[in-house]
Each structure stands twice: as C-alpha cells, then as structure tokens.
Amino acid sequence: MQNTLALIPSQIVSTLPVKTAVTLFLLAFPATVCALHYVENDQHENYIAYDYASNTLRSLPQGAILFTWGDSGAFPLWYLQGVEKMREDLDLPHTPHLVFNWYLDTFPQLFRHSMLRSIPLESQAPENALQLVIVEQYDRRPVFVDFSTRYSIEFPDYRLLQRGICYQLIRGKGEELYPDLTVWDNYILRGISGEMFFRDLDTGKAILIYANSHLESGETLLRMRQLGQGVAELRAAERIAPQMQMQVAQILSGYGIR
Fold it and tell me: How far is CA 194 from CA 3, 42, 70, in A?
C-alpha cells in the first residue's frame, strides 16, 4: 500500500479533497434547486390543456366545423384529433392560416373547390377569408367558432348560439338565442379550482375562458328574464375565477339582484 501511494505524485493527492468538494457542490446545487422548486414545476397532474380541448370537442355535434384562433387553443385540439384520434368527424381550421395555400392543401375536402383558391390570398385578411369560408360551409354542416374567435372577429350577419366554450353561427337577425347549458354537464374540469400550485399563462387563460363563458351565458339569461339560471351561471363564473366577484356583483346589481 505504501509503495502504491509512493507512485502517486504528492500534488495529485493534495488536490483530491478539493476536487471531491467541488464535485459534490456542483451536484448539490442543482439538486437543491430542484428539491426546493419541484412543486412549482411538477405538472404531472396538470390536465387543463387536455380537458380544455376534450371539452371543446364535446361541445360540437357530429360533422361540425370549428374555426379556432390562437395557438394555445388549437394545439391541444390537433393533438387529440391527430394523435388520440378523437372526433375525426370534425374539421378544425385555424383562422390565421386561411390565407396560405399550403394550409388549404391540408384540408382537400374542405378547400379543394373553395373560392379562396381563386383570389390572391396574400392580399386578404384572415377574418375576410373566414367570412367567405363560413358562407361556403353554412348550408353543408354546423359551423362553430371557439371563444377566442368569437371575441376576435365580428359576425354581423349571424347570431351566436353559445354551447359552453364554443359558439354556433346562426344566420340572420332575430331574438337572442338561449344558451345551451346542457354541455356543461359533459365537461371535465380537473385542476381549475385552485389546487394546482403553479399555473402558466396559457393555463390561467383557459381557466378564465371557462369563467367568462359562464359569465356570458349568465348575462344572456338575465336579459331573457331567466333569473334563477342566470344567477346560477354567474355564481359558477365566480367559483372558477374568484377575482370576478366584483364584476358579478355589478351585473347582479344592474338587474336589482343582491
């Protein structure tokens, strides 16, 4: 043993404890950071995006077309339909992409004979392209828009029939349409009640869409003098997003409801 140590230069022996200490420190630092912040980054039970997409699909009747606006809402839908083969009877065009021929090519049955093929798309705004496609598809199948599209584009020639977080376009003027409340019973809402420690911006946005959808249907019902159901919808909104309590109180006060 002494002969072996004699073969090791003394400077190497003296630096081994230093190297060992530095190595342990370098390993301990990321391990400590991970341990202290693991709960903030643990997303294994974050089903918000999955449930938001599946709830959207549950809102739609057979053979419908849903126009989306925004990557955060579109990507989970594409995953469920493309990977998990959920609701392959639906078409899910993304409105901002309607002005690109390469995108139209991905929906051959939908756009093969569309008027979009005969106009210079580079000069068109996505909302104009959307209005044209709606006219083409309206008599063929149910036409829906998601929450983001509903609040990004005006539809002066249509009324909006709310079905949860989606809206069906109904052609023509007339009385306000009674929101379809039955779809809420089919929704799965895991993680929206505040038990999740960390929420990114897209997660928070999805939760607010649920709350605002209840808020909108509640206001619609109050205008239609369906006070009981209207109040219930407003209360559902503030349960999902407690920061809406003041807004709900103002709406109720406007209808003389405490």
Answer: 67, 15, 25
Confirm whether 41 is domain-assigned.
no
Do 57 and 128 belong to one domain? Answer: yes
Is there a single domain that holds both residue 109 and residue 7? Answer: no
Amino acid at 173: K
* Confidence (pTM): 0.83
Instruction: For 158, list phi and psi in degrees, rounded to 5.
Output: -135, 150
Q: What is the chain's Cα-based Rg?
A: 27
Domain match, 105 and 20 both: no
Domain of 195 in residue numbering reads as: 48-252
CA distance 232 to 234: 5
One domain, residues 108 and 192: yes
Q: 223: Cβ–Cβ under 8 A, 6 or more apart, which residues?
A: 176
How does 35-72 read in b/e, with b if 16+ C-beta sit within 10 Å? eeeeeeeeeeebbbbbbbbbbbbbbbeeebbbbbbbeb
pLDDT-derived band at 191, boundaries 50, 70, 90: confident
226: Cβ contacts below 8 Å, ≥ 6 apart: 178
The conformational region for residue 225 under phi > 0 = left, psi -120 to 50 = alpha, else beta, is: left
Q: How many domains does the chain have?
A: 2
| Residue-level pLDDT at 14 | 62
Task: Quote the pLDDT of residue 164.
Answer: 96
Contact at 8 Å (CB) between 250 and 219? no
Q: For residues 66 and 95, is the Cβ–Cβ distance under 8 A?
A: no
Q: Pick left, alpha or beta for residue 124 (phi over 0 → left; psi -120 to 50 → alpha; otherwise beta).
A: beta
